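Lab meeting notes turned into a lecture example. A postdoc, R.K., suggested we walk through two folding results consecutively so the class can see how the record format repeats. The first protein's sequence and structure tokens come next.
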Amino acid sequence: MLLQFRLAYVAPESRVVGAGELVDHPKKIARNYLRGYFLIDFFVVLPVPQIIILLVLPDHLGSSGANYAKNLLRAAILAQYIPRLYRFLPMLAGQSPSGFIFESAWANFIINLLTFMLSSHVVGSLWYLFGLQRVNQCLRNACHSSDPELCDFIDCGHGSDDFSSARQNWTSNPNATACLTQDGFSYGIYMNAVNLTTERSVITRYIFSLFWGFQQISTLAGNQTPSYFVWEVIFTMAIIGLGLLLFALLIGNMQNFLQALGKRRLDMSLRRRDVEQWMSHRRLPEDLRRRVRHAERYNWAATRGVNEETLLENLPEDLQRDVRRHLFKFIKKVRIFALMDDPIIDAICEKLKQTTYIKGSKVLYYGGLVEKMTFVVRGKMVTVGENGINDTLSEGDVCGEELLTWCLEHSSINKDLKKIRIPGKRLISNRMVECLTNVEAFSLRAADLEEVTSLYSRLLRNPRVQGAIRYESRYWRSIAAMRIQVAWRYRRKRLSRADTS
């Protein structure tokens, strides 16, 4: 109840459009709770059973009014349980007026398990209580058939420890003694409860009653045969109905929980089966099939079957930008982009696509088109130039960076001060880039890179950015080294000819 005075709620009148307005003002929250469920909650938490036990029962013990006092106690408990269930059932369903309470599968599993235990506790407690009532009824029948004055000995008195002849007659009464035997009274499903009343340990009585509740709810009272007592038959029918309800609701939710744990695995199995059927239909050779299976497994391990682009499209623009900055923060490690302003970085991050390569995949090859820039996140690549020089690319490195310079050089400005592409050949690769291990990377397509360069051409033409591109790029450094070597050999050859002449 104290939590309800600080728990925000969604205003009902604001649900007409959208998700509604969340009210978090303390006074409005308190006023809404006082007008709502406060009286019900206050009545539920009142210690009515404790008051009856401490004040009402002691005054009636040892008299005929004890039976009425116990009936009053049962009525008070039942009167409090009905509103308690009214407040508890929405939580069991996992919903409240402000939305879902238990959104995770683990929370649903725990609340369903606790509900099953609570139901077993209630059924077991009622079974023990009704069993005592049947024993009480048998003893009353025995005392009325013998001597009505003996009925005073059924209920415990206030320190009544006399051993009068009347008490001795009652303890030796054959009708009363038969009430504690199996054939002395038609107990039906309460026979074990009668035997349980002789146990002095409260823990033993409670644990066995709880076990009985678990057993009957789980088996739908299939192993019980009630007597002809009407209320006993109704109680057995209630156990069967409660068991069916719990199996339909709780066990169904547990099944959903277990299915949620294996949902990704099931999706992966279905995806793998579709791929196998497609490869069989297209009659792919075994080598290609092996590579496709490897690529599918690695791609699933990297993405967990989640399409990040679809997930980000449903988020607000500023949140998309912040998430992309977090995902692509490795870009700042690349000195080419460390010198760029945030608008350029955001534009590049918006166009990046997640890509996975398996061991042996060729990202670039001799004579092929350079259609993308690839940023290595995890794994290793090797780049082999025309002169046969090898270089290793690892986390934070970029391949295909020559595409950025090429997009800046092969462009012009029209009369509207807009950047246009000059028709011509596309960039041809003069090196091969191959994956040494499985590689996770992000790629930037040529068309997206052209769009970024068209928007930020002046910033990208900054000499510092151009110098970083030339200096940090392994591609440009290898070209520079090769040209220096060619110039040095040419000069050495000229000097050799001059000395010979």
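The second example is placed directly after the first for contrast:
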Amino acid sequence: GIELKVKGLHGSTAQWESIEDIKKIFWCKKTTTSEYVADHWMEDDFYGYQFLNGVNPGVIKRCSELPKNFPVTEEMVKPFLEEGSSLQKEMEKGNMFLYDQKKMDGIPPAAYNGEPLHVTAGLCLLNVNPENKLMPIAKQLNQQPSEKNPIFLPSDPETDWLLAKMFIKNADCMDHESVHHFMRTHFLAEAFAVATLRSFPVIHPMYKLLFPHFRHTLHINTRGRQSLLGPDGVLSNSSLGFVGLIELMRRDLSEMTYSSLCLPENIAARGLESIPNFYYRDDGLKLWNIIQSFVKAVVEHYYPSDSEVHKDTELQDWISEVFTHGFLGNKAAGFPAAFHTVEEVVKFTTMVIFTTTVQHAAVNSGQYDFNSWAPNGTLRLRKPPPNTKGQSSMKTVLETLPNVGDTVVLAGLLWLLSDRYSNYIPLGTYPEERFDEPEPKQMIKEFQAALSYLSEAITTRNSHLELPYTYLDPAEIENSVSI
């Protein structure tokens, strides 16, 4: 904050005069990836890459049939497909993917300087090309097609296509921050933590297994509700505002399913098993399996059969608390209200630890890298989205971006959220040594060895990548939601 004030940026209501000026926000606080983003943000292949390996990798799905409200035609997209192919053929081959922000549709926007902002609950069609790159090939900025809601294409004037990409990204940033970051990691972790504290005594093996993964969570969430997601928090300076973001979270919670929180089922449901260069999936599935093996060993040690699960009233109280207060008793979404088998305990506990460690790292650690560069992704855009083609210029882009003060406040926040602190504890590290028996201590050693082996493999893989994917390297994953 001091650096931003010294430069006269903090609190400034001025508009950016050029894209290059945005690079001057920080002198020192730059990362290899943030520099890469600033150089490549306009490129379509990098735009597509971010739906796989950016900060919100959980939103696109395979498209085998276009939604009726997204009337993309063969003629529109044929120039952007492999020669000799067609839209139908690409869908049949599993090469078409869809981003659809329909859950945001109809939420009133926030006001800015007395005027309502604009929220684009849009759609984006993407294609995996012969070079195995995921490319955006069509965008519609609102749900209902009309003359004033055209489908934008890569062949449109450069700034029209650029603005369409920015408005889709603006909606994705709000969805990422409120839903996929705060609600699906921070606030779920809080529900798990409170239920653990209420249901288990400290000598219970499940308490010993779970509690290290809730370190600092209640503290950071309490702080976050005031400074980030409160009525006067930084995130209220978004196109949806505080009330709109809460409504978006409410809508997502009503649709949330148990399987969506379990990565193997999530990937399968979205049809992303074979899409190339999807490092979040590759690393995440390996981590899911490593965590599951560790949890299985510990749980089966203390619960040799299903009857022990039935008899443990504290365990049953815990899952009942989570079901009632965390998932609002939504049985239709597949969440268990009670445990009947050892296998059910293993799966649910794996999901809890994965959510509070791996998933949080995936959606939190890259925020400064990808979104400190406002043109690549920001919570607020000031001007209306384009509704006709050929009317925009780079001046329009600069007028659409947040003003200088709003841009630098968000960049400063993202630096804090992405930073690593001196008391950081990596995944699988248990300095308090809550388990006394030799068996679980050995299981922890094996867990740590598997994580170390995966870390080495990821480091080797990343050495061959133009842009390394480091967020799910076990050495870079914190053991709890603590920032």
